Amino acid sequence: MSSVKLVPGVKKYIDAEKQKIVDKLQASGWRTELPRSGLGDKVVEQMKDEKQKDVTWQDKCSGTVYIGGNENEGHFSLINEACSMFAHTNPLHLSVFPSVVRFEAEVVAMTAAILGSKEKASGGQICGNMTSGGTESILLAVKSSRDYMKAKKGITKPEMIIPVSAHSAYDKAAQYFKIKLWRVSVDKEFRADVKAVKRHINKNTIMIVGLAPGFPHGIIDPIEELGDLASSYRICFHVDLCRGGFVLPFARKLGHPVPPFDFTVQGVTSISVDVHKYGLALKGTSVVLYRNREIRKHQFVAVTEWTGGLYVSPTIAGSRSGGLIAGAWAAMISIGFEGQTFLILFICLACYLENTKEIMEASKRIQKGIQEIPELFVIGRPDMSIIAFGSDVVDIFEVNNVLSSKGWHLNAFQRPSSVHICVTLQHVPVVQIFLKDLRDSVRTVKENPGPVNGGFAPIYGAAGKMPDRGMVQDLLVEFMDSSC
Predict the structure, then answer these.
(1) What is the C-alpha radius of gyration for the chain, rounded to an integer number of angstroms?
(2) Dihedral Cα 402, 405, 411, 414, nearest 10 deg
(3) Which end of the chain has less neighbouring CB within 10 Å, N or C?
(4) How far apart, in whole angstroms, are the C-alpha atoms of residue 191 and residue 312?
(5) In this structure, is the dihedral angle defined by the CA atoms of residues 265, 263, 252 and 366, taken in order, positive or negative?
(6) What span, in angstroms and rounded, lies between the C-alpha atoms of 256 and 385?
(7) E strands in 344-429
(8) Of the candidates 277, 361, 328, which has an alpha carbon nearest to the alpha carbon of residue 102?
(9) Beta sheet of 127-131, edge-to-edge order
(10) Could you read off the pLDDT of 100-137 as tens digits, one per residue?
């Protein structure tokens, strides 16, 4: 393909076609310089006007917003107030803002506790830090594992192994930290293939990764088997619980058949878990956890030769928002594990356990409803609240486009072509509405086969057919370069 693109006229044609796609997605009319005169308080009114242009996400977004209800009341208002109260604070200044430092330590400890830190099998040394999101948690876990393995085993040409279903944050980590990345196959159930992982382990392997669950299909990898593998080769094993961390522990408590996934599994050295997803905190709050401090110390950066003084930082960011930390703490403290039960009414107030019960029940109803649509099939056997589905009868991306016209915003995937809905509290009251709209969308596409103008269907369709993945990569970079 590289040779073909050198043929006179071919490159010009390809560039023109790429630009057509980019132009469809590119925003326009953005401000490019400061206004001559500031708007003062009136800027708030302009921001409200801009907000009105956002899509109506309530009840109809896959994932994205995990808190139930209206954004102007209830839990939304509570964490907004907590964030506003500490918006000016910065945990970098330990002695100035001890309240925020305490909040962060307690968020980490509470998160660790639901993931096995109190169990004897964990070793009793679980520690960690808050980060800006799942990507930063993953980056830090990879960086720490790389440096830990260099110190323990002298590995200077690091490699890591992940299933093809692993999040793109691992590709980012590999690029940032100069680590060779192996993406290995999944089995027929879309779980990481342990044998394939084992085949790629060599003297330079620093870590392997397991998902609980995987972002595309909501399926949990064989964490125990991967843990045994990591232990036998004395390498690091990271479990990606970014989506599952605030669901799986409670689902297990409710009696769902959840396989082992946390620090009680021997071989697990680090875990990432997002508080801003099912933990119901504000966006920008995640936690990275380690089995012990010996591993975590490789996360820190300490500088001794700076004229500005001695410096040490635990995460990628220096200054961080104390407001986000306070918001996460308020979310966890206000919700609690089991909540309060009124004996007379037998009603449990909103809590993680009750939230999980509602989300899992809604997920099962949606999965059953999709399976009853003959043109569709569910991918694998979802373990949690993510249901991916595809079709051998209709173009699933065109179905997604029709759903978008009805206000739904789902996630599109490739290999296999599919879309998924990540069920949140927002979806609990609208399960039947979603299933009706899905049935109608499938019928529309079936009765009107052919390409749909607009949306992402043409883009995903073209990307899936391009044999040159470098061309697809160029397209993505062109789009991003034109958008920021």
Answers:
(1) 24
(2) 30
(3) C
(4) 39
(5) negative
(6) 12
(7) 347-348, 377-378, 386-390, 411-413, 418-422
(8) 328
(9) 127-131, 286-290, 270-274, 236-240, 205-211, 159-163, 180-184
(10) 999 999 999 999 999 999 999 999 999 999 999 999 99
Flag the least confident range among 209-223, 353-367, 404-418: 404-418
End-to-end CA distance of the chain: 29
Contacts of 179 by beta carbon, 8 Å cutoff, 6+ apart = 142, 146, 158, 159, 160, 173, 206
Cα 410 from chain centroid?
A: 14
The DSSP secondary-structure symbol of 416 reads T
Share of the chain above pLDDT 90, in %: 74
CA distance 359 to 368: 14
Amino acid identity of residue 459, one-letter, is I
Q: What six digits make up the tokens of 113?
A: 């506790």
Pairing of strands 236-240, 127-131: unpaired
In contact, 268 and 237? CB cutoff 8 Å: yes
Residues 6+ apart with CB under 8 A from 110: 332
Task: Classify residue 215 by its DSSP letter.
Answer: T
What are the backbone dihedrals phi and psi of residue 193, each rounded to the nearest 5 degrees, phi first? Answer: -85, 105
Distance CA 330, CA 322 (A): 12
State how far the Cα of 340 lies from the Cα of 230, in Å rounded to an integer: 41
* Percent of residues, the chain, with pLDDT higher than 70: 84
Task: Supply the pLDDT for residue 56.
Answer: 78
Task: Identify the DSSP state of 263.
Answer: T
Instruction: Extract the tokens encoding 399.
Output: 């179905």
| CA 264 – CA 262 distance, rounded (Å) | 5
Task: Give 229's Cβ-side CA count (13 Å radius).
Answer: 25
178, amino acid identity: K
Q: How many CB atoms lie within 10 A of CB 409?
A: 16
Find out whether 185 and 205 touch, Cβ atoms under 8 Å. no
Sort strands 159-163 and 311-313 into parallel, antiparallel or unpaired.
Answer: unpaired
pLDDT in tens, 182-203: 999 999 999 999 999 999 999 9
* DSSP symbol at 114: H
Q: Is the pLDDT of residue 301 over 60?
A: yes
Non-local (6+) Cβ contacts of 271 within 8 A are 115, 141, 238, 239, 240, 241, 245, 262, 263, 288, 289
pTM of the model: 0.88
Secondary structure element (H or E) that encloses residue 161, with its range: strand 159-163
Q: What is the pLDDT of residue 94?
A: 87
Backbone phi and psi for residue 209, each to the nearest 5 degrees, phi listed first: -130, 140
pLDDT: is 480 or 206 the higher one? 206
